Amino acid sequence: MQSITGWSRREFLARAAAAGVVAVPTGAALAGCATSGGAGSKKVASGTKSTANPLGVNESASLDAYIFNGGYGHAYADADLKLYEKAYPKATKDSKVETGQQLGKALQPRFVGKNPPDIIDNSGDGNLDVANLIHNNQIADLSPLFDAPSIDDPKTKVKDTLLPRTVDLGSFSGKPYILNYIYNVQGIWHSDSLFKKNGWEEPKTWADMMTLSAEIKKSSGKTGLYPWAFQGKFPAYILAPILSSAAKLGGVDVLKNIDNLESDAWTSDAVVTAGDAYSQLVSKGYVLPGTQGLTHTQSQTYWARGKAAFIPCGSWLRNEIFAVTPKGFDMVVAPTPSLSKSDKLPYTAVQALAGEGFIVPADAKNPTGGMEFMRIMLGKAASTQFSKLTNSLTVLKGYANSSELTDSSLTSANAVNVAAGANTLYWNFGLWYAEAEKAVENATGQLMNGKMSAKAWAAACQKAADQAKSDSSLAHPHRA
Amino acid sequence: MRYGRYRFIACMLVVPLALYAVFVLSPYVQSIYISFTQWSGFTSNKQWVGLANYRTLIHDDTFWTSVEHNLIALIVLPVVTVALGLFFATMLNVGGRKGKAAVQGVRGSSFYRVVYFFPYVLSIVVVGVLWSFIYDSTSHGLLNGFLGWFGGRVDWLGDTSTAFWSILVVMIWMSVGFYVVLFSAAMGSIPAELFEAALLDGSDRWSTFWRITLPLMWDSVQVGVIYIGIQALDLFALVSTMSANGDGGPDNSTQVMANYLYINAFSYNKFGYATAMGVALLILTLLMAALTLRFTRRERLEF
């Protein structure tokens, strides 16, 4: 069996392997031509500042926006670009909204080549690691935007028209770099119509939750309805209510300590108690059997099809499973139940955080244009348009009472948010420490699989936090 | 004219070799350099750290868990896949005994031949997503619905003890078809007289397989083992689409080197460290290919 090259297949394989043809490992080819340098960026000149143009946008420069094409789509950004073009009619020529997914991979070459878009909606799986980019001075400081007058009222600064802590949440070491545009209320969801039909009320304490769960569980053989489902394959979802409950029990310091990598942040009583409470859902059989092996779409679909009464999620849930939700389901969100009678924060406290981070790269050609685009997005016209298109809230204060907005998830999220007032909960741990977050998620999966006690879970999380603290290649921002 | 012939060959090779050098060899060289640096992947400055990445690698428990999983796959995948491939190929080509022709496949073999190849033509991501539904861990899932008749339910991808094996089964399911075709081709090239002679001598299927079929197609088996062995050292796509959190979960119980490398690069932005892993993976793969070639060496049979 001699081939024309004079090599047998054996020899050919041997040589090919030696030359690395057969054995192309994913990693070795990964870097591509990454070691080459990049061309310098050519910034457009800045325009003249005026009342209508407080940032000083170059009126003839084009704008290049890059929008994550996920649950919210990009129709809203297309509409926003129209508003931008209306304000700057001379700039229409090459302006565009590009869309994509896996932004880290899609935009890495443009960052290395110093040719990034002017504004990026950095979201979704595989997005850009902003903490790292900020660490390397590759993201523009958004202070000019937040200090500029708002588009609806020239007397008010943009930062004063936004929901609490929007600016803080996007700040690193005191400087704002990220505009988190969408206001997500993260809580526990149920079907309003199902609860009304059965005469159930949303449980406001953990004891009530356990009582109602026991009642639902009793008849689950007949009804097929279990008390809880959660997105088992993605433990971050169930981690959210655990930390919310912990913060209500022990106060905001619980979350601050976690963000600041304090030495007993995770092993504190509040966190362990919360972890223990939620793990009882599993040990008492209150979860849909097998929910630990489900993705977010699978578990949420079962929930919408009446296989579980509760599911933890953010307010993007409505859009994510709209197609499989029965008519008249009326999904609504509620805060996490209080764990004790002596909780430091009221029941109405809720994890509500601005998400969907928009950034302006420092090396962009038209960074001022990117910020002006943000200013337009933060107007009433753009926000109402956004809510109509996506049934989600933006970070703009007080626009969502409009009678045009009627969806049950949107109105319940707005009501929960208004009731919470200043008691909104958030944490930055996952954003700041990606690797430690993975370890925490892994441990949380084991906690909710009955394979780890709450104590062991807390210890594993603490270990991950301690490792992040001692890693000198990471920036360690401080949450005040 | 030998001189002209070499010149011709050289001319024909310039373009492919240049492409190969630019797009394959140069990234390798760059990778080795990057593996000695600390690099976030988003700037053009890299900090030289010498062997630090490799030192971290040696003490990284998750990396060794990944290596362990790859080694399990390296043993299980070739053995099971090649055995199944050989079995099905034999049945399809020389297993039948009825009719006038002495050597033929079992009844309906042309139909099976197509069916076996189906999984292989599906995109690997499609396979991963489809099987994620088959492995649905509630009692509404396909497999669990079946187990439910006997009162059982398994968490498949949600449990640390079953997740990796569940993924290996999918890998075998989708690979077997290719080996059936590969081995069928090899069997087809064995002269029918040899099988007929064996039959006349009273050889049964079992001894025909071991004494005639296998020795005459040893080359193909060897290639098959190396090829599936390389896939066993990869496994990235299936782990990435099927595992919990998409990152080798639950709790790294399905973690493999390629996926851990990917997470380090694209989730943790440790491109330097990830590249060091890539280099380690390269060395392991070359070692595997060399060892396989060494240990499967046999005398060639000419026919």
Structure description:
- The complex is a heterodimer of chains A (480) and B (303).
- Chain A has 480 residues and is an alpha/beta fold.
- The longest helix of chain A is centred in the C-terminal third of the chain and has 17 residues, at 454-470.
- The termini of chain A are far apart.
- In chain A, 40% of the residues lie in helices and 12% in strands.
- In chain A, the strands form two sheets. In chain A, strands 1, 2, 3, 6, 7, 8, 9, 10, 11 and 12 form a ten-stranded mixed beta sheet that branches.
- The longest helix of chain B is centred in the first third of the chain and has 33 residues, at 2-34.
- Chain B has a two-stranded antiparallel sheet with strand order 1-2.
- Chain B is flat.
- Chain B is mainly alpha-helical.
- The interface between A and B is large, with 66 and 75 residues.
